[in-house]
Amino acid sequence: MISFDPRFAGRFLASSALALLFATPALAADPVVAVDPAKTTAPDDQKTTADGALNEVIVTAQKRPESLQKTPIAISVLSAEDLKNRHVQSLVDLQDGAIPSLRVAPFYSRNSALIMNIRGIGVLADSNQPARDQGVGVYIDGVYLGRAQGLGTALYDIESIEVLKGPQGTLFGRNTEGGAVSIVTKKPTGEFGLTATAGIGNYGSRKAEAHLNLPEWHNFSVKLDGIVTKRDGLVVNPLPGQANFNGFDRRGGHVEILWKPEGGVSADYAFDTSHDASTPLYLQSITAGTLARAPALPLQPDRVRTASIGVPQQDSIGDTHGHRLTLGLDLAPGLQLKSITAYRELDQSQYDNGGQNSSTYKPNGSFSRYSLAMFAQNQFSQEIQLIGDTPRLKYVAGAMAYREHTTDNAQAFNTMVWNANGTAATVATYNIATVPYDRASRITTRSIGAFGQATWTPAILSDRLHVTGGARYTRDMKKGLLFIVNGATPNVDGVVAPRGLDAAWSRVDPLLTLAYDVTDAVHVYGKWSEGYKSGGANSRSLRYAPFNPETLSMFEIGAKTEFLDHRARLNLAAYTGAYKSIQIDFQANYIQIVNGQVLQTNRTTIETTNAPGTGRAKGFEAELTFAPMAGLTLGASYSYNDVTIPATVNPFPQGASGVIVTTPIRIYPVYTPAHAASGSIDYDRPMGDYSLVAHLDASYDSGFYSNYNDPAPGISQPKGDPGFIVNGRIGITDIALNDTGARLSIAAWARNLFNEQHLFYKSLNTLTGLSGFFNEPRTYGLEATVKF
Questions:
Q1: Integer Cα distance of 124 and 750 in angstroms
Q2: Region 195-201: what's the mean pLDDT?
Q3: Which has the closest alpha carbon to 725: 670, 778, 782?
Q4: Which of 717, 701, 757, 725 is nearest to 103 (CA)?
Q5: Is 722 helix (H, G, I), strand (E, B) or coil?
Q6: Among candidates 226, 211, 194, 214, which has minimal Cα distance to 257?
Q7: pLDDT at position 35, please?
Q8: Most buried of the four, 125, 520, 545, 707, by CB within 10 Å?
Q9: What whole-number distance in Å separates Cα of residue 631 and Cα of residue 272?
Q10: Are the C-beta atoms of 151 and 143 separated by less than 8 Å?
């Protein structure tokens, strides 16, 4: 039931006034829509024209606006309307599978850092570290976001989210072996316009959002965005005064100024700031292990509303802000020079005490491990692009520089103790100031690159053949120090001192594409491209030894088609690729050398190595959009992903004997369902002075592994449950408010409409048993939007 506090009305009026000053940084956008001039465009972001044909979708995957149907890349696009219909408030909400090839998930229990995988490539192990990277690049208005932390902030006024599948190393560069997620925000219009939204929902959710465009003044156009969105926890923490599990409180602000002093010259400056407070997911024990469990810790095979035991728990706080300046200059007809300069800062705390239910029981023993991690980062990037367009040659060339400073540290301690009878728990006495750091490091990353890509249309075959070639040179440099590991200064070969990292890698990533226009509505292509994930070092290791980049070389064939007088659109892609130098984590002993003797303890570290052998990534994708009648649009998409990683020997010493076990260990692809699909129905019916709109979408995945190796010899890693999630929205739009010119829209929404439950994350420990995270329960609410 929706809980409504009358005081909220007053708070909303105040927050609406402030919303222009406070808004979270935008992380998404809706595809720019263009149509045939002969057709009449439907208003706003509708998928069809007035005569029922599908609107053309424009993407910027090749650094210039182009039709999705003529771009020889497998791309999925979510528009602003798509995001609204699915009630997507941050990238976290894309974990239900709106785009089957894209997997988004919290890093373990933390919504403050996100895992991003495309086609099963991106994250295999721990990317939540300063000297490690993900294999999927995330961009906002052309600016690369260097960290997994901070990706969970709220989305504001979005134009589109473009998901580019497969290696994008030539035009996007480093850390795009799996693909890229390009988020585009709406730009200032230069015309007065105000859109304000307010909403409430179950679990105490509430939202206030405003977007203001000011009239152009002396060639300056200004846009202000603000958003405040909050939800109480989905699982109650019984300890009074402590935060519940899986809640959030996000707010922020954005201002953008676009200056066009004359034709062909533009300067676009944007500033954003955000505050993201979130709490971790709650880990539930499903089956028992070999160790005893206290009576106060029952097994929880179904999703619960209240945790078994209350624990100290506070919000993880992420504060980010950034500046971007994009300059454009038309040097000549068909030739543009573009510059993107950006600086961003991130401070993120990560507090996690959600695993108490998987604790074991020992009378008067302590339990409930609390992890407190601090992460700080700042980055500067500069990219120059030269974009040319002639009748037979389209090209882009450029150079980029990137610099990043990152530090992290972590503390971990038990916050609870058992009573002697094991039926209750009390808060242990602890002082954070006296708890030693478990690890601490800092790193500076620098990267430079130069790239070029050209598409040539030779004067043969009626200009239907297009040949694209390109390459990028990149040099990455990482330099840093590991101060503490396992609560002590690293001790390697008898030297007790911080471990230094000073490594560099150079790469060339090529691309070659052949595309052919079979007809004006049927386009086929074949593409070979390469991408890579940067090398680095593991801040949970002892030696802090560098590991090399991992690479993916992929062949892809595809077809982009339209038929039934542009009322149906079917895009297909099939691919296969060689996956090499895969970065894999293994446990290793914590080694200390005293008086020439090697002392090995039961403590372990995590070391990273590049696995020998070649893996394989292959699959198939299909997307269908169909408009059978005016106002009705149907969508369906399917993805088959098969990632194979060779079994690998752990090359690091194990156990008290310090031996190396030579038995190969099976390696599982993570966050990669073999089969995933989604479908949607959108209906828009004019009813005189208003319109009735309805949306329904469903997503399915066959389940995936969350951990990449077996928990013990002879015991297989458990696979997550299949999931089937349905979301819906229904509303009345464009209600005229007297003669003011304002329009009112009212809508009801629901996520996980049928309250389906499944364990998307499973972890097996022979001592404590099977545990996991359930998907979120049904959430729903009401929203009202006024447009002036």
A1: 32
A2: 97
A3: 778
A4: 701
A5: coil
A6: 214
A7: 34
A8: 125
A9: 36
A10: no
